[in-house]
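Bench notes, afternoon.
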Amino acid sequence: MTIDRKQFLKQSAALGGCCGLALAGAAGLADAATPAAVPAAGVTPLDARVKQGQQVIMRLIGQLDQQLDVGKRASIMEACGRLCQQGTHPPAPTPTAEQAQQFMAGIAKYVGAENVQESAAGTAITFVFKQNPEGLKTADGYCLCPIFEDAPKGISATYCQCSVGYMKGMFERGTGRPAQVELKDSVLRGSKQCSFVVTLAPASA
């Protein structure tokens, strides 16, 4: 099963997009200013632009790896992920305890209850992502990020820090509690799953 990229890109653009999507769009604007290249047989212009966007992002991540230390590039990518999450989900009032429970129940339903393990104190959560809504599985090599679901070889795992930022924003919005997120493993690191440990601040009394 494949993702309808045209629908994804339209929706993402309307919502503010992902940290890498703006670069894909910029690549499209550059195309408009120069003679259009003839796409290979069986490749639509949209597919060609997605591939070109992937290459632009790969070059950007490569430069981050070469020019910045680990902490700085992680910080940049996490900020991109948080902006992606904020663009998809507008600000909301601090959730009540009941709403926070509903959020956690929704997360468990989304990825499967067996893939969300919460500590007794409710402050540490192990979150495992194995499949997206369209049925693409990490075990088959598909990336968590829709832009790189079919990630070309060679992309740096630095890109995964974008998902760390997204997860942090998602859990903070859903629980109303400050969160820290650690990436344990990912497809781009050679794993068959993407897993995170989310540490929440204790709930207010």
